[in-house]
Amino acid sequence: MTGFGSSASVIGEPDAGLMDFTQMSTHAGNLASCIGIPLIADGDTGYGNAINVYRTVKTYAKLGVAAIHLEDQLAPKRCGHVQGKVLIPLEEMVGKLHAAKDAAAEQDIVIIARTDARAVEGFQAALERCKAFEEAGADVIFLEAPRSLGEMRAAVEQTNKPMLANMVEGVSNGYSKSLEIVGVGSRAQVKGKTLVVSAGYSHPVEMEPPDGITFKVENNTKVIVSGIDKELVGNEAAKVRAIRPPEPYKGKGIKYEGERILRKAGKSGKK
What we know:
By secondary structure, the chain is α/β, with parallel strands linked by helices. It has 8 helices and 12 strands. The protein folds into 2 domains: about 5-165, Alpha-Beta Barrel (TIM Barrel); about 175-255, Alpha-Beta Complex (Outer Surface Protein A, domain 3), CATH 3.90.930. The chain has helices at about 5-10, 20-35, 50-60, 90-105, 115-120, 125-135, 150-155, 230-245; strands at about 40, 65-70, 110-115, 140-145, 165, 175-180, 185-190, 195-200, 205, 215-220, 220-225, 255. Strand 4 (about 140-145), helix 7 (about 150-155) and strand 5 (about 165) form a beta-alpha-beta unit. It starts with a helix and ends in a 15-residue tail after the last strand.
């Protein structure tokens, strides 16, 4: 049970610490009661200080949650793959983990300690936090958003507890889709934020980007559609292609980069 999924499905909002302890624990209990496999549930920051963490862990355990992960962000927390996160001091997080382990000693629940330090202080600082969490008694270490398989491998090799890692493509770097304009005189440019395409019509076609989408043009014939929403990027790229889809005889028009057009032979005149 993730914070992102819970926020989206329960209150229809982004993962920005908007769901409180009561909402999250109720959602966790509902899920635990209707599935037959162990449930790992997001406990966010523990909803307060070490005393609150103690209560959170005990409550989740009583509701049937098998494992809870607690993170070292300052509340209200942010989704792990976005910018602007702030960490609490390491000593404070270690104190929270001690409280979590005290609560777990009275219940049957696994404590997963998560650090978001990779994006804030760098990989080495994140690794140091992982080691400190291990020493504090965490059962599983959760490294949020490593940036390569090499970092994941190093983290696993330098800790002795089971390691959970989370890598999501697109949220930080975004997605992009490239298109090529083929044909003499056909070209594109960006004016302000507006994409202007000349594709053989009597007048240029203008496209205003929706929120979260940017247009870029390279060499007048390559259009790049970018954004953090993969579906929206794909939809807008399809609209650009639809301005003049590639025709099958000479291949003129707008096509996706790398797209293969099934060509047809032209009709020959009568002899």
